[in-house]
Design goal:
It is a single chain. The chain is mainly beta. It is built from 2 helices and 28 strands. The strands form 7 sheets. Strands 1, 21, 22, 23, 24 and 25 form a 6-stranded mixed β-sheet that branches. The chain has a 4-stranded antiparallel β-sheet with strand order 2-28-27-26. A 4-stranded antiparallel β-sheet has the order 3-4-5-6, with no helix packed on it. The longest helix is centred in the last third of the chain and has 8 residues.
């Protein structure tokens, strides 16, 4: 039996906002809006370095705040840091760079910047090097997950801030939580559902973790999803839609939790666009119960409940 092909129709078209800009990332906010980070020119990679942190010229960033009804633009001029992520933070915008350098003698890059909706900087702080994902709750708790270089150290960090793989911060960059239950070498996926429910998936154990109880009374439970190398997932707490993992990125598996701690084998799913073509180079983001696909100038979305009602 062939995998079901699910057709998705675009809910937003952003080409009118792209002239002179390149897309850096597309992310869900905790408010259900889509936040698109644009830059006027993608910075070149330095020889011998994967990603620059400080940039040797000024760049202009633009953030699109997208709903099905409207697109709002925020322009942030004159920036000299390499940012990769954007999230809403109490009416402001949080820009975060995946990399930051430790220069010695307690000198380091501040890789998080809070801006107002006019693009003015309000404050900057440190969130650590090697950030894989950033998601902010509606209450303003910042969750960061880290890839292997952020866990084991690089860019001058001998005692890396992300050594536990998963951390939470307040809106001023004060640490609220770090994971000490899972043995995270690389946090492949993060899904901050709300203040009381944060899911993560990590290498090398390929386990699915859930932090419940918030940062004050955190309790971590682990589930084996029987999936290797998934880059993301969304969930309603019962159904789980995963990226299918190593060698299968861009296809998906829908599973459900039959009993606590056990997921079903699942149903493989492929998505096609309005022209019945598979999504080839789509950016994807998972948050709460929704998958976001971004291809070219078009944005697509689907919820696990929509998939489950048609398949399960």
């Amino acid at each position: 039996m062939s995998n079901p092909k699910i057709k998705l129709l675009p809910f937003a078209e952003i080409s009118a906002h792209l002239e002179g800009f390149d897309i850096v990332s597309t992310q869900w906010g905790g408010d259900g809006r889509v936040y698109v980070l644009l830059i006027n020119q993608i910075p070149e990679r330095k020889q011998g370095m994967f990603v620059q942190t400080k940039l040797n010229q000024t760049y202009t960033y633009k953030v699109l705040i997208v709903t099905e009804q409207s697109i709002e633009e925020v322009v942030i001029w004159g920036q000299t840091f390499n940012y990769h992520y954007v999230q809403p933070l109490h009416g402001h915008l949080l820009l975060v760079g995946a990399r930051c350098t430790y220069y010695g003698n307690d000198k380091y890059d501040l890789n998080a910047k809070v801006c107002d909706r006019e693009g003015n900087t309000i404050r900057e702080f440190l969130l650590g090097d090697g950030i894989q994902s950033v998601q902010v709750t509606e209450n303003g708790t910042i969750w960061t997950s880290y890839f292997d270089e952020g866990v084991f150290g690089n860019n001058g960090w001998n005692n890396p801030i992300g050594s536990q793989g998963l951390l939470a911060w307040d809106m001023h960059g004060n640490k609220l939580y770090e994971d000490h239950t899972a043995d995270i070498a690389d946090c492949y996926a993060l899904n901050v559902v709300n203040e009381q429910q944060v899911w993560f998936y990590y290498y090398t154990d390929f386990m699915l973790g859930c932090v419940s109880g918030g940062t004050q009374q955190p309790k971590v439970t682990l589930v084996d999803p029987n999936l290797s190398g998934s880059s993301g997932f969304c969930t309603d707490g019962y159904h789980f839609l995963f990226d299918a993992g190593y060698g299968k990125h861009g296809t998906f598996v829908l599973k459900k939790m039959e009993k606590p701690g056990t997921l079903t084998k699942g149903q493989k799913i492929e998505f096609v666009n309005e022209q019945n073509n598979p999504f080839k180079q789509a950016r994807q983001d998972f948050r709460q119960n929704r998958l976001l696909l971004s291809e070219g100038n078009l944005l697509y979305q689907v919820t696990v409940e929509e998939l489950a009602s048609g398949l399960v």
